[in-house]
Structure formats: structure tokens, C-alpha cells
Specification:
By secondary structure, the protein is an all-alpha fold. The chain has 15 helices and no strands.
Length: 369
Amino acid sequence: MLSAAHDIIKQFEKEDDGTGVHNDRQCNIVSTGAILLADIIPSLMVKIVAPYIPFWVNIRVFLAILLQIAGFLLVAFAEAEWMAILGVIATSASSGIGETTFMAYTGKFNKNVISTWSSGTGGAGVIGSLSYAGLISAGLSPKNTMLVMLAFPAIESFAFWVVLRKPSGLYHEYQDSKDASESTRLTWPEEEPLVTWKDKLMYSGQLMKYMIPLTTVYLFEYFINQGMFELVYFENIFLDKESQYRWLNVDYQIGVFISRSSVNLLTINKLWLLSVFQLVNVVYFLFEVIYFFTPSIWIIFAIVFWEGLLGGGAYVNTFYKMSKEVHPVRREFAMGCVVQSDSFGIALAGFLSMPVHNAICSLPKPIRL
């Protein structure tokens, strides 16, 4: 959906051919940050509530898949902007339900499942952005591309209900006792299960050391992606403006995929460092979209790839660190709670990116050297 953001907006701006009204910067009137908000706020709302409601995994997964299908169909057949936005919202709610459900579900498996889950989410980003960019480049319309994407809910259904081996009760008891002994050595001597809402709310404060770095990393990177990607434009090269936006998203997702798959090879404990590096990227891109000083798009591709590495690394290392430090009796709730962090950061990025996008659009277009 985020890869399609530019096209979703453009099709409803016929009055000015989607180029915006400010000047020759060729800005969309509505920032792709608007699509970002529609794509993240429903997900965030779901993630906030999900840890506090019963964990009925099959019902949750069924609802997530149903919303995916509805989202693709609404965007594909949208005849007005509100209908397309409603489709993005349905997909967002599906993502929120799925992520909180599966992340909490990892607590019932070996801790290495954190690595494979994170790698899968990184792969999803690559497959989603690459398939959209590839199908559009091959000549399919955005509508037909969305209809092709209906294959993915079917794949997810087959993967969850047919392929996935459900954890047995005996394995739970063995793994919980094994993880408990490891956690006891690493962290606290004893932990009580979180039963009441008050217990859960009180415990949430202890999770801030994981949540704050993850939130800031995602705030910075999605501020770049949805506020400034669209404004980075190189004229007279092998890619037009729309294609540049799509392939920058693919490049970013490749970086995310690689770093989310790397935790068994490289573990990062100082999570705040990733936030600092991502802030440096924000500063670079702000200067780039204002002054157009970067001589080659390949430099932009390299920085965007680095940006993806930082985001993916923050995600996987946060949850891997939790799998080693959080006591098993509290792990399901803790995972479901901390998974909100990226959505908080992305939502803030959506709100911040729109006024910044419009301010930059009002500036004269510089001449790239």
C-alpha cells in the first residue's frame, strides 16, 4: 500500500494532473504521508487494544485475512478518494491484528522464531514493494496489480492453517521451564503472571527501554520515506518520477529484509545508536530535497538502503533482546505491547511529514548540479 501511495493519490487529482499547484517541483497536493496515516493509525489502534483482549489466535488470523481481501478490493475498484482510503484503512487494521497476534504467538515457540518472524516481515516488505513496482513496470494498471495481490491472503491462509506446526502442550512446558531458567540467570529471580489490567499497565512502564528506541527509529525513517521520497527527483535519467518513488521503496525494503534476517549473525545491544544514525539520515534528506545537492541517484539508493538496514536492525534486535531478557510468563504480553512502538513512530512521522512536505513544495525548485 505504501509503494502504491503515489499512484493512489495521483488518480484522484485530475484537476491539476497530479502535479500539485505550488510550482515546478511536481508535488502531489496530498502528501503520501496522508496514505501513511491511513495505513498506520488503524493498525496502531488495534495494537494498543490487542494485548488486553483474549488471545483467540484462529479468530484473529481469520479476521486479518478477511480485512486484507476487503482492502485490496476497495482500492482496486475505488471511484472516489474516500473509498481508496477506506481500503488502505482495512489493510492497516489487518496488519495490526496480524502483527500483534503472530508476535505474541512467537512466545509459544523457541526464541529463534523471533529471527525467522522478523526475516519474514522483512521479506514481506521486499515482495510487496518489488511486486508492485515490477507489475506496474510490466504494464499492469494499479487496479489490476491490486487484484493480483489477492493471491497473498490465500497464501497466508494456507501457511497458517496447513503448513505451520502448532506447538504442543508438552513442548510448551519444557520450553517455558528452559527459558525460565535462562531468564532467571539473566534478569530477575522470579516473576508473577500478569493477570489484571492494572498489573499489565504497571508493567508497561518497564518496557519503555525497548519501546523508545524503536519508536524513534521508525519516526525518523518514515518521516524520510513518506515526507521526502516523493520530493527526491532526478531529471532525464532511466527512471521517471513515479518509478523513482517505487524503486526507492523497493531499495529500502531490501535493506530492511537483510537486517531483519541477520540477528543470528550480528546482535546489537545499544539500540539507541540506531536512532542516532537514523536522525543523521533525516538531516541529509532534508538538505537534499531543499537544495538538490546529491549528484547521482545511486548515492540516494545507497543511503536509502542504509536507512532500511537501520530500521530492520532496530526491529529484530529489540524483540530478540526481549526474548532473552523478559521472563516467559510475561513474554506474550510484553511482545504484544512493544510491537506498538513502530506504529507510534510511523504515525508521528505521518503527522510531521505532511506540513514539512507542503512547506518544501512551496519553495522554488533548485537546479541540480
